[in-house]
Amino acid sequence: MVRLPLSPDELARGRRLGTLLRRARGTRSILDTALAAGISPETLRKIETGRIATPAFATIASVAGVVGLSLDAVWAEVSTEPDLVAGAATG
């Protein structure tokens, strides 16, 4: 199976997801968070840095639960247009 390249919008959404999860993790270590979520620390690091732009739903749900985010909050953040997020952050 050939995987199509991700669109710029998908890549931007992946970066927003990573930023959100990293912020929500706070001072908790990647190791502790990843183990609590049932994923490898390397996978979490790649998600947080945007290198895995489209992680599996179960992975997102698990990490979100560990860091105390609802899936509604995650979706609201990552589905927003980048210009609107930047405007909300500055205004």
Can you walk through the features of this model?
With 91 residues, this protein is mainly α. The chain has one domain (23-90): lambda repressor-like DNA-binding domains (434 Repressor (Amino-terminal Domain), Orthogonal Bundle). The chain has helices at residues 8-25, 30-37, 41-48, 57-67, 71-78, 82-90. The protein is globular, with a radius of gyration of 13 Å. The N and C termini lie far apart (45 Å). The model is unreliable at 84-91 (pLDDT under 50).
Q: Report the major sheet.
A: none
Q: Give me the Rg, rounded.
A: 13 Å
Distance between the termini: 45 Å
CATH architecture: Orthogonal Bundle
SSE series: HHHHHH
Share of helical residues: 55-70%
Mean pLDDT: 89
The best one-word shape is globular
Structural class per helix/strand content?
mainly alpha
Tally of DSSP β-strands:
0
Broad CATH class: Mainly Alpha
Uncertain stretches: 84-91
- Would you identify the CATH H-level superfamily? lambda repressor-like DNA-binding domains
Strand fraction band?
Answer: under 5%
* Tally of discrete structural domains: 1
- Classify the oligomer: single chain
CATH topology: 434 Repressor (Amino-terminal Domain)
Separate helix tally: 6
What's the structural blueprint in terms of helices and strands?
Layout: H1 8-25, H2 30-37, H3 41-48, H4 57-67, H5 71-78, H6 82-90
Helix pairs in contact: 2-3, 2-4
Q: Key terms for this structure?
A:
globular, 91 residues, mainly alpha, 6 helices, 434 Repressor (Amino-terminal Domain)
Summed up:
The protein is an all-alpha fold. The chain has helices at 8-25, 30-37, 41-48, 57-67, 71-78, 82-90.
